[in-house]
């Protein structure tokens, strides 16, 4: 009886602490994601660590891996994201037409149901960089799909029947599109939006899981109400952000076409009750046309998932001149930073710096280059949080109609959306990177609704004297140092997976699944899948055996930049022979490959 | 923008091009509407072709890849222009193109309402034609006035 009383007191306290009715979806998902036999959230867990406790596949056994079954999606274009595994079922989505498959693991992927939405094909050309989709989400017995045309649809996980459907944006009219994976947090489904190249006004939107009604919208740019900032309570680097923090940094009403897409990943800290995500490039790519810091593009946001209110923000690249979107994954990790135990948020930005923040306060603790080629800034000023710019590599500083040469990284970033992995065991991050530089020439463009709003042209090539376009690296955030770096012929454009078996897996653009030793980066296993890999590797168990699963299907931005090979030695810097043509290595085609160990 | 206006632009562009041709050394007879560019040393181009390069980067590159060479899903335009006439190309840019069936989901948007696209149609054609004819190499060209 005493115990029972103590228990109910605790429950009451917990409910009081939350200040709202606790949601089953949230608790169930936390529980499910702690069970390493399943893969229930897009990035494995709410902390976006892409780590699994499983260790049957380890440094000794990984050499015995082999494909055990495969599945063709019937769709050709770029396959980003990865499958979910819930119980005996696997769920995955394809690029446009965004078919969702529910596969039975008991029967090597028999199709239990298939859902193919009807969409206006005119959405295809308003997607900036191929018709990718970064996966579905699960919660309360439903699968959530964020379609190309921005429709968010809830499907019964057992039958594929539509529970509800809601249109979030205007795809054909305004160039607003859906590519990102939704995230279920508490009683809500969160989605971002794509269209930074079409002059959209970026936003994150929360829908009620019950019926798809809109709960809140938080814009990237606009009035304090629109961006859900409290001038006193919302902070930047520990200080109140003040009134009109976005409006004051744009010329006239340019913020209305301010870009700041939210097409990356969302993380969630249940204890702090904060969600984290980043915003993308300001529109246009011509910096001289949009003076000011262009807030809050290129920003890390920490928001309350119940209300959308911003707790803290940090803009990494004020007044972007390079298209260094800030949307990459926010990894929540408890680890030593300069020796001090820290509840950190670690973010490998497109701009080439790895940012370590205190995820409760939003204070900047560390910002170091994770590719030595990065040259647009010498460092991040830790007092102001601003990059120390190198004018020679600033297309805005050089002015419009001038070709700024030799900027590293290229607009692709030192890494793009392809999510990293983190081992809480060793506190090491495993990061898929691009090793590409560019020439960038901005010029004046006009805004037309639903049409591209870019205003720059660029050429890309490998850094001076080098001929590998990518690296897969291990990074220590405690010291801000690269531990090892595996060179790759092409950019590494797949999401990584780290496991308790001390191995880390990733895919390559020429189609290899690779498993390497976490300590040394030494290759243990590789297999050439049917097409280039831009998907994320996931792991699960079925009947007690561990498997790896990955989607092949070359495309995405990688498929645009590299199908034809990069420009040869444009600035007189590239190495001879660096010119590589991806189309000589791989062709289109979406295929899931599941790997297992021999008995 | 009306079709008449487009034709007018094309005509004006043609006249300017012909004017330029009389003062610059050419690798192609600029009076030929199918070869409207001027290229020197494989790298220096007339201002129209130069603008074509820029607006190609603005409007076309995100699908058709760097230097007109195609992407994983959009065609290589340096090949396309070997058989496609100027008029066919203009028609495709203005009205778009759809190829959606079981094998393909390729859609090119209609650029007819995009002022930058319509005003630079001639320029983009010149640039791509020079690339397609093998007269202009990859990467950023210089313009002859520089």
Notable characteristics:
heterodimer, A: 599 residues, mainly beta, 6-stranded mixed beta sheet, 6 helices, 40 strands, disordered N terminus, B: 146 residues, mainly alpha, two-stranded antiparallel sheet
| Major pleated sheet of chain A | 6 strands, mixed
Number of strands of chain A: 40
Number-wise, the strands of chain B total 5
Count the helices of chain B. How many? 6
Q: Give the strand content of chain B.
A: 5-15%
Main sheet strand line-up of chain A? 16-15-20-19-18-17
DSSP helical segment count of chain A? 6
- What's the average pLDDT of chain A? 92
Structural class of chain B: mainly alpha
Q: Approximately what portion of the residues of chain A adopt beta-strand conformation? A: 25-35%
**Describe the biggest sheet of chain B?**
3 strands, mixed
Question: Quick gist of this model?
Answer:
The complex is a heterodimer of chains A (599) and B (146). Chain A is mostly beta strands and 599 residues long.
Structure commentary:
- The complex is a heterodimer of chains A (599) and B (146).
- Chain A has 599 residues and is mostly beta strands.
- In chain A, 8% of the residues lie in helices and 35% in strands.
- Chain A contains six helices and 40 strands.
- A six-stranded mixed sheet of chain A has the order 16-15-20-19-18-17, with no helix packed on it.
- Chain A is globular.
- Chain B is mostly helical.
- In chain B, 49% of the residues lie in helices and 10% in strands.
- Chain B is globular.
- Chain B starts with a helix and ends with a strand.
SSE topology sketch:
The complex is a heterodimer of chains A (599) and B (146).
Chain A: H1 2-18, H2 24-34, E1 51-52, E2 65-72, E3 84-86, E4 89-93, E5 100-104, E6 110-115, E7 137-139, E8 142-146, E9 151-156, E10 162-167, H3 171-174, E11 183-185, E12 188-191, E13 203-208, E14 214-219, H4 224-227, E15 235-236, E16 239-240, E17 267-269, E18 274-278, E19 299-303, E20 310-315, E21 331-337, E22 340-348, E23 353-358, E24 364-369, E25 377-380, E26 387-389, H5 395-398, E27 404-407, E28 421-423, E29 428-434, E30 437-442, E31 456-461, E32 470-476, E33 481-488, E34 497-499, E35 503-507, E36 512-517, E37 523-528, E38 538-542, E39 545-552, H6 556-562, E40 591-597
Parallel strand pairs in A: 1-34, 15-20
Antiparallel strand pairs in A: 2-40, 3-4, 4-5, 5-6, 7-8, 8-9, 9-10, 11-12, 12-13, 13-14, 15-16, 17-18, 18-19, 19-20, 21-22, 22-23, 23-24, 25-26, 27-30, 28-29, 29-32, 30-31, 32-33, 34-35, 35-36, 36-37, 38-39, 39-40
Chain B: H1 3-21, E1 39-40, E2 44-45, H2 47-64, H3 77-83, H4 86-95, E3 97-100, E4 105-108, H5 115-119, H6 121-132, E5 142-143
Parallel strand pairs in B: 2-5
Antiparallel strand pairs in B: 1-2, 3-4
